[in-house]
């Protein structure tokens, strides 16, 4: 019987538990696999901290947000027990034959390195930003868009009541997919994303045009958006566990600039971690379950070094290095498609 260890790494997002449930149910039923979960991401793999995963453990998990295994920003090469050689000894001691790593770009990169050094590992892509290449959608994205769209709907009512310009900041470090989809769904009058900067003059022109029609302007901005002339993304919160700037606050920078230049009272709301919490949407539950089930097929076929991905409506296998070639960013034509109706 193949014993498989599952870990969830990086930022949490809705749907992680559905992946775990899908993997355990199909793996045990169809492939005769046995499962354990590594606690707190790569830290559990490095330190050998596990919990048993069986059908009773994962019962009813598909609708729960977060991850029952915990997660962290700890990397597999950190600490005295890190590195492929030490991890191989830990896996042997635990009797674990293969690893399923659920995570984003950083997790995929670490998994690729471990695979190159002999670890039997496969992956499931996870990021609410939807910016991982070679998969059409990642679970968690749809939930984040739904939450952001509801926030837009709510902000519009108070904006209309006070005739204010409302600025909503959503997540999106290097890719503006959440801002684009939520802004489109919520009927935003301007959508500002990292891939395609806009000038302050253009933003204010859109806002003024909306005001002149007797409407309350709604602006959606991704946290990684920069104005022309900004040499780096806005950050005042130090570095995260991967030594990247912790983003958040560009909306609060834009709001007073809009108010000063247009004379329209402007308020900013930073949605933050609300986007990553709570229960997943039906779409994300289904996608996450399918990906969890499919990754056990990779284990059964010994397709190490691959991750599962969504291509159209089909689940496919993609090698880690293919997925890491580039970030999936919003192309110019997709942005321009919506830009023509801003203002």
TrEMBL record:
Site feature (Important for substrate specificity) residues: 106
UniProt binding sites for Mg(2+): 105
Cofactor: Mg(2+)
Xref: InterPro entries: ATP_PFK, ATP_PFK_prok-type, Phosphofructokinase_dom, Phosphofructokinase_III, PKF_sf
Catalytic activity reported: beta-D-fructose 6-phosphate + ATP = beta-D-fructose 1,6-bisphosphate + ADP + H(+)
Record localization: Cytoplasm
E.C. numbers: 2.7.1.11
Residues annotated for ATP binding in this entry: 11, 73-74, 104-107
Pathway the protein takes part in: Carbohydrate degradation; glycolysis; D-glyceraldehyde 3-phosphate and glycerone phosphate from D-glucose: step 3/4
Main location, first listed in the record: cytoplasm
Broad EC category: transferase
Active site: 129
Annotated residues for binding of substrate: 127-129, 164, 171-173, 223, 267, 273-276
HAMAP family reported for this sequence: Phosphofructokinase_III
Subunit field text: Homodimer or homotetramer.
General function of this protein: Catalyzes the phosphorylation of D-fructose 6-phosphate to fructose 1,6-bisphosphate by ATP, the first committing step of glycolysis.
UniProt name for this protein: ATP-dependent 6-phosphofructokinase
Organism: Rhodococcus olei
């Amino acid at each position: 019987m193949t014993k498989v260890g599952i870990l969830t790494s990086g930022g949490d997002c809705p749907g992680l538990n559905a992946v775990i449930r899908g993997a355990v149910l199909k793996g045990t039923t169809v492939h005769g696999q046995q499962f354990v979960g590594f606690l707190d991401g790569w830290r559990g793999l490095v330190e050998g901290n596990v919990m048993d995963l069986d059908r009773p453990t994962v019962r009813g998990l598909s609708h729960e947000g977060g991850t029952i295994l915990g997660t962290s920003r700890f990397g597999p090469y950190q600490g005295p027990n890190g590195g492929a050689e030490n991890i191989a000894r830990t896996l042997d001691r635990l009797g674990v034959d293969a690893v399923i790593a659920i995570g984003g770009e950083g997790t995929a990169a670490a998994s690729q390195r471990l695979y190159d050094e002999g670890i039997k590992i496969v992956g499931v892509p996870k990021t609410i930003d939807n910016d991982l290449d070679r998969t059409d959608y990642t679970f968690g994205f749809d939930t984040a868009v739904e939450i952001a769209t509801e926030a837009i709907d709510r902000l519009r009512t108070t904006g209309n009541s006070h005739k204010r310009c409302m600025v909503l900041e959503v997540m999106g470090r290097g890719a503006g997919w959440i801002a684009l989809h939520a802004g489109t769904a919520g009927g935003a009058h301007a959508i500002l994303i990292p891939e395609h900067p806009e000038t302050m003059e253009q933003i204010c022109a859109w806002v003024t045009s909306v005001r002149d029609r007797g409407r309350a302007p709604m602006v959606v901005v991704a946290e990684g958006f920069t104005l022309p002339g900004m040499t780096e993304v806005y950050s005042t919160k130090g570095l995260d566990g991967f030594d990247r700037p912790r983003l958040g606050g560009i909306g609060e920078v834009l709001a007073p600039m809009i108010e000063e230049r247009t004379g329209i009272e402007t308020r900013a709301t930073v949605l933050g971690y609300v986007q990553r919490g709570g229960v997943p949407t039906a779409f994300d539950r289904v996608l996450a379950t399918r990906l969890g089930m499919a990754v056990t097929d990779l284990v059964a076929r010994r397709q190490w070094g691959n991750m599962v991905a969504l291509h159209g409506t089909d689940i496919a296998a993609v090698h880690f290095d293919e997925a890491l070639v580039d970030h999936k960013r919003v192309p110019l034509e997709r942005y321009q498609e919506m830009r023509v109706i801003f203002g």
